[in-house]
Amino acid sequence: MKKTYDIFGEIVYSNEVTFKNLDKKVTRVVELLSLSNKLVATAESCTGGLLSELITSVSGSSKIFELGVCTYSNEMKQKFLNVPYEELKTYGAVSKQVASSMVRGLKKISGANICVSVTGIAGPTGGTNEKPVGTVYIGFIFEDVHFVRLLNLCEVSKSRLEVRKCTAWYVFDILEQILMEDLENE
Q1: What is the pLDDT of residues 46-58, one digit of tens each?
Q2: How many domains does the chain have?
Q3: Which pairing describes strands 114-120 and 135-142: parallel, antiparallel, or unpaired?
Q4: What's the pLDDT score for residue 12?
Q5: Cα radius of gyration rounded to whole Å, the chain
Q6: Sign of the dihedral defined by the CA atoms of residues 61, 53, 46, 28, in that order
Q7: In the 8-state DSSP scheme, what is residue 45?
Q8: Positive/negative CA dihedral, 3, 43, 163, 29
Q9: Residue 40 is part of a domain; what is its CATH number?
């Protein structure tokens, strides 16, 4: 898979993500979580539970997977993750602000060491000029570090499956980087 980015920068992906190489990436992340005795939790919207499914497909994941919640509607984002109504109204569900609130809400209810939120437009419909299909925001909390990344997959694919797979790849790639760095610093 071709990629160009750094953890704090812009990202461009090719559309060469397959479930085979994604499964290998997820297995590696589960191993790293286990080695570091860290728990992970997910709050998903446009990926519809794919992150949770991938994690739990790996043997031993029960030791590292704390919680997975799929809050597809705005009402459920508010109810379960305490995303403010005004934020949803002002910025929309697909926004940096909502991804940030989702991951903070997830951290509060799960207590996991690493929390990830995903909100975006998987397509093939639903996009606008301002937020085209493939616009995805991902929130991360690792210990005391909190950040949100914008994934611009509109140039990669308009396929719903490809948007979801590329998002999952990005999430697990970042988690692998974070965990590797954390283990090296111990």
Answers
A1: 999 999 999 999 9
A2: 1
A3: antiparallel
A4: 42
A5: 15
A6: positive
A7: S
A8: positive
A9: 3.90.950.20
